[in-house]
Each structure stands twice: as C-alpha cells, then as structure tokens.
Amino acid sequence: MHSIDQAYIDGRFVSPHGQEQMELVNPTTGDVIGHVVLADETDARQAVLAAKAAAPAFAATGKTERLELLGRLHASVMARSEELRDATIEEYGGPVSRSVWVSRFAAQTFLDAATTLRDYEFERSAGRSRLLMEPVGISTLITPWNSAAGSICGKLAMALAAGCTAIVKPSELSALQSHIVAQAIHDAGLPPGVVNLIHGRGSLLGPVLCTHPDVAKISFTGSTATGKAIAAMANDSVKRVSLGLGGKSPTILLDDADLDTAVPGAIVAAFQNSGQACIAGTRLLVPQALLADVLARVKSAVEQMVVGDPADPRTQIGPMLGAAQFERVQRYIRRGIEEGATLLVGGPGRPEGLGRGFFVKPTVFADVSNDMEIAREEIFGPVLCILAYRSEDEAVEIANDTPYGLHGYVFSSDPARADAIARRMQVGRVAINGMQHDPLAPFGGYKQSGVGREYGVQGLESFLETKIIMEPGNERSAS
Questions:
Q1: CA-CA distance, 139 to 219, in Å (whole number)?
Q2: Which of 48, 130, 366, 463 is within CB 3.0–4.6 Å of 342 for a Cys-Cys bond?
Q3: How far out from the chain centre does Cα 351 lie?
Q4: What is the pLDDT of residues 435-477, one digit of tens each?
C-alpha cells in the first residue's frame, strides 16, 4: 500500500498542515492501493512564501546556471523513469506503451526547454530602445491527471528556464506519479523554494494559489469549465494566465486519402491514451462517397482493439481513471443512442470478460450530426463520432463549428491540398497524415481550448515580462 503523507516545500519533504486523507484507487481493479494526505490553505500559503523567498536570487541567475539546472533535472527524472512508468500503469491505467512514452517525455521536456533557452536573447534592440525580457515572477502550475508527469515537467521546465520560482499543484488523482516527480526534483539539488509541490483539492488550494498577491502567473491545464473559474479568480489582481483547456478535435479525411493508412491513423488519433486526451481526434469527417468503405474499415479495426490489463503490451485501451470518469463516458454513450446516432461498434457497459475495473467498450457512432451532444461536448473517453460531408467547404465548416479549437488532423495523398485545408482549420495545431509531435513548437488552442501557448519560444515567453529602456538622445522628433 502506498502512503503519500508529505508535501514538498522550501526544499524539504514536510508533513502537511492539512489532515484530509484520500484513497488511491487502481482503475484496472477498482482496489484501494494507498492514500494521500491532502494539503490545505495553510500549506498553499507556505509554498508561496517559500517561492517568494527564493525568487530574487533565482531571477538573477544567468543562462549557464539555468541550463545546468535543467540538465540535472533531466537526468534526475530520467533516473526515475521506470518508477514513473509503473506508477502511471498502476494509478492511471495507462497502457504500457503510453506509460513508457510519458515517463521519457517528462524527462525530455527539460532538454527541450534548454534548447529553447540556449538561443534565446533576453536583451535586444527595439526601435531606438533596449528590450529586456524578465521573469514574470512566482508562478502557480496546475496540472491534470491524464498526463501527470509530462504536464508537471513541461510547465516547470519553461518556468525555470525563464527564471521563475514555482508552486506545482498537480491533480490529487495523480498523487503517486506526482510524488515521484517531487522526489526527482529534490534529487536534482535545486535551491530551496525554487520548486514547491503540494497535493490537494483544487477547491481549497485554487483560491489561494490563484488570488495570492505574491503570485504573478498561473499556468493551468485541464477542463474548460475549471479554466474559466481560474481566469475569474486571477482577474481581480490581473495575474498573467495561460490556459490549456479541452478539445473536440476534428479529423478530416479527404477523398484522395489512402484509406489503408488514413483509417488506422484516424483510429489512433481518436483512441490515443484510451481516449483520455485533450487532442483526441474524436470527430472523424468522411466524404459521403467513401462513407460505406470507411465505416466498414473502422468497425473491423475497433472490434479487434485489445481492451484490458494496461501492463500487457498487447493492450490498446486501458481503464478510465476512476468511477466518476467511467460513469461520465457511459452517460455520453447512452446519450448518443438517445440522440439517434447509429451505434457502429461498442456501446454501454463493460467489455466482455472485464467485470472489474473501469473499462469502457471502444465505441463508434455513425450518422452523427454536428449538433448532437456527442459531437459537441468533450467526452474524454474512447468514443468516436463519424460525420459525413459532401464538399471540402462543408468539411471545414463542420470542423470549425465547435466552441473548441485545440487540434486537428488531415489525411490526403496531396501535401499541398492537405496544407490548404490545415490553414483553414481554426485550431492551434494540425497534424497531416499522422500523429506528429514537435516539442520545440508552441502548443495551445483557439477559442475555448485555451489562452496562450506552451513549449517553444512562445512557451518560454509566457513566463516573461517585457521591459523597454529608453535613454536620452533617442527621442523621436515631435515634427
């Protein structure tokens, strides 16, 4: 049984002031595997104080010091990658292939931040003036449960590269993974207070960490509803806010696509991370002329997907995080049937032979119209909606007819045609003919999928403020 009864504040693991204990549950079995003691408002204020005390010295560090620090963090997290892999499987139910990738990605974020930092100019000319980019200040980093280690490390890497001290508030539902990250951070030997990590409920810690007068920046990844609440809390003191929110990503399959590769690619996009991914391509847009062929291919492929033990290398779909997420997905599956969509494969209930755990049948709906709830709302589970279109213009119109705009996918045998469609999609990222990932490019969304960007130069600058210094003799003539 796991017992996580410490917070990481001011360079030390300490017993939190909070006393609430929350059970940790293995989603594969439904069994309790331990508990975590949750921090409270007092702990949150202590974390801010520690970050404040460390801020002036850390903001004064140069590139060389920060690059060395990022290198140590990479090595430290990488040394615990097997622990992270195992915790992701046990606590989250991530299929082993995904869990291995996430554990390595978490470490890699520090090297990616170092690459961005190495070539970045913090001081340069702007007109007749000097432009200085300075650390925004103490930053609150709030991360989700579906990619715990990667989200923590990704946000933290850029905050540290910019010279900001930080308070990390991970989801309490990922306490085991987050605690391993905290241990890795401690092993890297950072100055006390530069990074603080506390487990706790957002309803208690959020109001402190998002309104505290000493906090300058909030970086949040999670649901759109929670993001709106955080933005409202930050508004009173005009804090800098970056929000990575939900998605209902479209996959546009053009009529010249090679179906032998496009259909498997679209299925991977839809069901990645067991469907618990903000970038999942959960709306597949298919030309009417190809619809029958595509439906047959999708049905055959999804029926053969392996659902089960996430530790088994053959498994493609693991369990949902917990009972609440399982019920959420079941509710949407029932709603799709009520709305009149055609159930192509899957449906309500657990897969055959899986009576325990929070497993969902990979489900595909056909005859979906874009005004249905299952087409408009983020389900966050292995549910794919297939919509037909009759022209490219209609495909783009359907793709953009959503409150979200995080990610998109296009499949075509003509690169120029695919690029033209990608340019018309109202999303932050578009992948063409695959599942590409570029860690040095900015990531974020349009519309209600977020505000600001993470990763790359824009991700670094989200933790920086701009200062202009104008000196005598550089005034513009009044005439």
A1: 7
A2: 366
A3: 27
A4: 988 999 999 999 999 999 999 999 999 999 999 999 887 665 4
Nearest C-alpha neighbor of 363 from the set 340, 375, 381: 381
Structure confidence by residue, pLDDT tens digits, 403-431: 999 999 999 999 999 999 999 999 999 99
Instruction: Specify whether the CB–CB gap between 8 and 191 falls below 8 A.
Output: no
Q: Each residue of 220-270: pLDDT tens digit?
A: 999 999 999 999 999 999 999 999 999 999 999 999 999 999 999 999 999
Q: Tell me whether the CATH fold assigned to 2-245+445-468 matches the one assigned to 250-432.
A: no
Q: Domain coordinates of the chain in residue numbers? A: 2-245+445-468, 250-432
* CATH T-level fold of 250-432: Aldehyde Dehydrogenase; Chain A, domain 2 (3.40.309)
Does residue 219 contact residue 155 with C-beta atoms inside 8 Å? Answer: yes
How far out from the chain centre does Cα 256 lie?
32
The candidate with the shortest Cα–Cα distance to 250, out of 217, 225, 285, 276, is 285
C-alpha 298/C-alpha 85 separation (Å) is 30
Cβ contact 254:417 at 8 Å: yes
- Alpha-carbon gap, residue 243 to 227, rounded angstroms: 6
Contact call for residues 434 and 454 (beta carbons, < 8 A): no
Mean predicted confidence (pLDDT) in 286-291: 98
Mean pLDDT on 280-306:
98
From the CB of residue 440, how many other CB atoms can be counted at a distance below 10 Å? 12
Work out the pLDDT band at 148, boundaries 50, 70, 90: very high
Residue (of 149, 240, 139) closest to 194 by Cα position: 139
pLDDT digits (tens, 9 = 90+) for 315-365: 999 999 999 999 999 999 999 999 999 999 999 999 999 999 999 999 999
Instruction: Categorize the per-residue pLDDT at 478 as very low, low, confident or very high, splitting at 50, 70 and 90.
Output: very low
State the Cα–Cα distance between residues 96 and 9, nearest whole angstrom.
32
Please give the Cα distance from 377 to 283 (Å, whole number): 11
| Structure tokens belonging to residue 263 | 């259909």
Which residue shows structure tokens 């930053």?
A: 139
